[in-house]
Design brief:
Four copies of one chain form a homotetramer.
Chain A (H helix, E strand, L loop, with lengths): L2 E6 L2 E6 H4 L10 H4 L7 E5 L3 H13 L10 H10 L12 H26 L3 H4 L4 H10 L5 H23 L6 E3 L15 H4 E3 L1 H24 L4 H4 L3 H21 L7 H15 L7 H4 L3 H12 L1 H25 L10 H12 L12 H47 L1 H4 L3 H6 L5 H21 L1
Parallel strand pairs in A: 1-3
Antiparallel strand pairs in A: 1-2, 4-5
Chain lengths: ~450, ~450, ~450, ~450
């Protein structure tokens, strides 16, 4: 057994060639081949981290490769690479630290992509080319760019709020006036004839028209001044949705003013209904404002990261719904008033499993109530899991984003905090006495040797 | 007090025999017996991890055995074994790291068993024997095996969806036709006579028949071509459930076509009802598809791991239900319309504790409402605990599975990433200058000694 | 600046007296006084952990005392004590590891107390005195003690289940018979006259009587044979509750058989009602069985540990209830049918904040609905906190209990796993070559010195 | 490649100048300039932590700066500062430990501010000036100051409870008497005329009056004796709210006794209603008592820390509400009885998303039920996130507060636990033998050298 001395960056490790040959085809196992001269003990120097090397040597001693959980995965990776040890030697109990690093980095990458996307969304270089076009583009798109831009955006937000309010106010029967050709009818109009027999009250209509014109102008302006290519502009989902909302507004306007003859009342009512629903897409205009907040990004990322688990759990949720819904239909078979078909059973199961519990359909026999109890408990457990997933993802992304932005701010201020070495040296932190001391301990042995050889 | 020098793989630890004898019958306490020669100081060499040895020496110094929480439990175990120190010396505050390793490994074992089971489920070697039988078996059972297999499985999934939809559509009164012998009756049939007085509409019936025949053929084919022994085949719960669903379908068919005379309407209705409920077992056919997703395995494992705690909490939940249910019955004794018996009280307690709150039975007196408030709060707290348990188990299993699959993929690609030592050496990472340097520091002392002796 | 060499159990630390005097009145600051001889450099040996000493020396270097988070709080405590450094030097960012140890130990103490209590509950030594008394006591109280004891306990459990079922069945009007003096009245008896005009059906009554006699005998037997002093026996809450349940049963029996004349129907009904409610206390008999499960202990400990936070949150919950209840009363002032007084408002607030939502009282005006929305959201947030507290406490206690029982089992098997040193030595793990090697490195220097001096 | 020996507080690190120059403009890269003399090997001494230096040297070796996760952020900061390495070199995977320290410290600062505020609230020095004024001020404001103070505060709490009960009892129609001018009317008064036609029952009224007088006197006393400046006193929100409650009480009293003529019944009813609602502000008087509990501070801090995320999530919640509310209005367009306008749809969406589920408005068509299912699931997920945030913040603040108060108590007792060095030395823990031993190992080499030079 030949003793081997490994000088790992100053720290001495003593072992034998027999130990080092236990794990074949690694850097340390090849050391014996290098060491042809028979002068014992063999000694080698490597400029690596001695702390981590301890645990790498443990692989040769015990045949198991464990790492302390506090060492960064990247450090482990670097050392394994240097010592030519394959990742497959890593013990299964110590995978966590190793792969936590990987998942951390992929999360960070997602966060960076998000910011990159936001920056790409703002092609500042292209903005500098034109003059008035870019000026308008900046005003419309970037509230932080100038005082005028922020004022415009506040005004835009107010118009969005106003327009959305009108959308809701428009459904109040009290704010609608009977159409001229129904003037002599009674004032109480049933809900389903609200669009065929009444029209919006004049003030509501004109304010709504103003909002519509404003959004149309803003949209056209953006198309005209955009420095992005039109094909790309119309591929952004936000712009498509905005366009559909504007289009549906104008179709709706023309239909309301002149109800065409080729369409009967019922079909007309449906068309109006769908167009009004399409106008709801204007809610996406709030997205622009929410998008400025970091927490909103985090919600987005967390939901996106949980999507595949959501799929499974929604599938399990739906299968449980079908199961309990079908079961309750047969269990409550003697009840003539509720659970008339299995679909109502499924609706009951949904209402019970989400613990909403409207009470419109309720089991009445004892067996049905037992099914109800099991159904509610199952629902609570199934829904707890996606909640837990999205919650834990939210926390992970939120903390990472906080750290990252913290770090980025620090980086930008780095020039201020950097030390001037010269000044520090004058303060004597690298003291001459100290240098002397180390010489007296270590290097004097050399001098001694040197004088002897 | 004789000084002892312990050379732990190159690091020197200096202590006394008195200290080492504090903990009797361990490897270090026996050192004094070995050291018969009276040359001081005594020195011993061990090829172990010096980092961990520090904390083992602390046991001799202070009488307490603490380990840093970052060191892997397996490393601690190895060192304790080598130094012949019993686990019972371990301080109670440091058990976590030690036993976390154990529970981690048992979780990993469960995950591996799961995969092993899946692989065992697919006896590929046996598959190679026959020719057409294996071809069909593979097509039916393993969607990933060939293009034809995946097409067949998509078709199978569609038929399952279709058949399930028909099961639900069949309960819609609008889709049912009056039986020939009830033809002259009024069309409005009450729910409880739906099976005795009506029959499925022809298109629904024929499509349902097609699905039934398809599943029967598929089941028979699987029995015929299976390379597994039949006894084992029929012991798989999925196959039993599938068989019951098919059987109930055919009994149902024959009963619907020819209603036997020996059975009266009411009993017939119940038999049909139970058979239809049995057909619901076909929902398990979706299991085959869910089973392919890892998240589903995790849900399974998490629920299975939480089962004994669930039992206790369900027991506590039921006892609380009984308590509040019985209490509300007496508290609401003067209310003539609701809470007619204690079972309705229990139903109310279930609905309140799960926060479903249908509102079909509601306390009306003040004391009853106070009971209701306490009941709701108790329920929220009791149900929070199983949710927390299953959630935390889900997270644990999910992370472990992610790490493990990550690691397995890495292992398979190991040959690509393995370094060629020869090449690395040519790049000079084991530099001759370095080797020289370590010689000048450590081994020269030896040469010096060697020349002297 | 005099250089100081500190040999901490073999590791050398080099610093200066100036540094060591920065923190006054600690062991290291007094070193200069000891070192009167002017031979430089000064050197001292201490048999302590060099790993932790590094961070203690950091206090002298930087004036801040930080510890790595992985080091056990007890280790830190020991080192601080040895080096005579006060806890108050500890940086506030590193308190966690230090005090986590303390809270861990207090949790462990609670768990041990629990087990101790259970063991105390079983005074085995006293049991050995008498003969038949102890035999019966063991049979009744300790199901695990013998086969007969476990059979008796299963029978006891069955009787408890039976008796509880009868308690509930007794409230079903269908299972009650009209009293002899009301025989000629109509069979439909209203709920409030159920006790005055009807009596339990004979089979129900006799089975109930059997259960009552069984419990009474069991209770008397326990009183007679108990090795515990009677004063202590009657101070156990379980025994009190059991006694009350038995007493109420007998009072109830005598009242039902002979309705006294001095009491009118209404008052009699109330008395019966309260006595029946008292019988519900027999649910506590299930406690004996639940108590055997560890998870149940954990629930108990977790709830007990969270009690002071619960108090605060219940107070906040009730104040919010009062606030929203009073508010909704005035907001819904024009609604004549619901919210007739502020107490109904509070009930609505409870139902809304717990998200039970019966729907018996619902806000109808727009402002009321806004209050309802805020109320529901507030409730969800307030109730999330106690749930989080009890959940996190549950997890903490559960993990600690698992580790502790794991460790206890290990301790009991320690004799089997203990290594035989002699055998190990023969296998050569303390190799003579190794001993030689360490000599050649370190102790030879001594010999060299020895020969010189 | 010149070998460099770095003596980091006694531990030797061996590397080359080439390696050290890899990271420019840091302390280590400037070492070569210092080392003008060509005597090899160069050696330098630094009095720093060798454990952390290992990872700093890794930056020079591999170009990446990773730190183990267990090292305190403050230690890392100190070392980076000393070695003049910029924070921007820190690897992105190791930001957590670094910034966790920062966020921990900011949480601690918040907790300290809280205590500081409480102390500032109690200006004890100013209290000492006057005699009777301070005596009263202490009695009123600080229950813990004296026995008299605690008795007064218990009485105050009882009056608050009494007054709040009366506020609620006052809304019970049974406890109100018809006004003199309505005496001849029927006793059944409708809810909306409760204030115009009835008055509080005399006992209720007089007890309420007593409470009102008590609070007024207490308030005036506090104004008179307060050592705080009046401007500051009236800026405390608690004092403002208290003042408004007292004012509304007196206005209410005068209005109830003499209903003015210039106001009609309906308007009068509204004024009374608003004044009564204002009296509810007296609930804030409970705040004084809750404020004494630490858990309440933690709730406050946790809610305050989560406020910006709450904002976003409330916004997302409201947008989802608007979306589902508007959608259900059109989906349920054919339903004449419910969903009469989009606002009712929004109310339904709120009730569904919070899972309250009153059941007053329920979708009836199949499409509406699908919308309901999606709405409930969305609501559960959206509301899970703020709950998770406030919960995790609660845990963080709670643990920090526990550690901090634990530490503060320890500090106060430090004089008792401090060791007497003299005594310890006599016990021989710094043994002369040990000192000798270190001399024989290290310093003898010096002596040897010394004798040679």
């Amino acid at each position: 057994m030949t003793t081997v001395l490994l000088n790992i960056s100053g720290s001495i490790f003593q072992t034998t060639f027999e130990t080092l040959e236990k794990i074949p085809s690694t850097k340390l196992s090849f050391l014996k081949q290098d060491f042809s001269v028979k002068s014992s003990p063999a000694s080698f120097y490597f400029d690596r981290n001695p702390d981590v090397f301890n645990y790498i040597l443990d692989l040769y001693r015990t045949g198991e490769l464990h790492f302390p959980s506090n060492i960064c995965g990247a450090t482990i990776r670097n050392e394994l690479e240097f010592w030519e040890i394959d990742k497959c030697y890593l013990s299964e109990c110590c995978l966590k630290a190793f792969y936590k690093h990987e998942s951390d980095m992929s999360i960070l990458k997602e966060i960076k992509n998000l910011e990159k996307y936001k920056v790409l969304d703002v092609p500042i270089e292209e903005c500098r080319k034109g003059c008035w076009r870019n000026c308008i583009w900046k005003t419309v798109q970037y509230p932080a760019s100038s005082r005028r831009a922020s004022l415009f955006n506040i005004f835009y937000l107010l118009v969005v709020v106003l327009s959305t309010s009108l959308l809701f106010l428009n459904t109040l029967p009290d704010l609608r006036r009977p159409k001229s050709d129904h003037f002599n009818e009674t004032s109480a109009v049933e809900k389903e004839h609200i669009y065929t027999k009444t029209t919006a009250a004049p003030p509501v209509f004109y304010v709504d028209l103003f909002c519509g014109i404003f959004f149309t102008l803003e949209y056209i302006t953006r198309i005209v001044v955009t420095p992005i290519k039109w094909r790309k502009f119309f591929c952004t989902s936000l712009n498509i949705v905005d366009g559909v909302a504007i289009l549906s507004f104008w179709v709706l306007c023309s239909l309301i003013i002149h109800q065409p003859d080729f369409i009967d009342d019922k079909a007309f009512s449906y068309v109006i209904m769908i167009l009004y629903s399409a106008r709801l897409l204007q809610l996406c205009r709030f997205y622009r404002f929410l998008n400025r907040f970091k927490s909103f990004d985090v919600i987005n990322l967390a939901v996106r990261a949980s999507i595949c688990q959501f799929g499974i759990l929604i599938a399990v949720f739906i299968l449980s719904n079908l199961f309990f819904g079908y079961l309750i239909y047969y269990v409550e078979f003697e009840d003539k008033n509720s659970f008339n078909n299995a679909f109502i059973g499924v609706w009951w199961a949904v209402v019970t499993m989400t613990t909403v519990g409207y009470g419109d359909v309720v089991p009445t026999c004892y067996l049905g109530r037992v099914v109800g109890m099991v159904c509610a408990l199952t629902g609570i457990l199934i829904l707890a899991m996606p909640v837990a997933i999205v919650t834990s993802n939210f926390t992970i992304y939120y903390n990472k984003l906080k750290e990252y932005t913290n770090h980025k701010h620090k980086k930008e201020r780095k020039n201020e905090t950097r030390f001037n070495l010269k000044k520090a040296k004058e303060n004597g932190s690298v003291s001459p006495v100290s240098v002397l001391t180390v010489e007296t301990i270590v290097s004097h042995t050399h001098h001694q040797n040197g004088s002897k050889s």
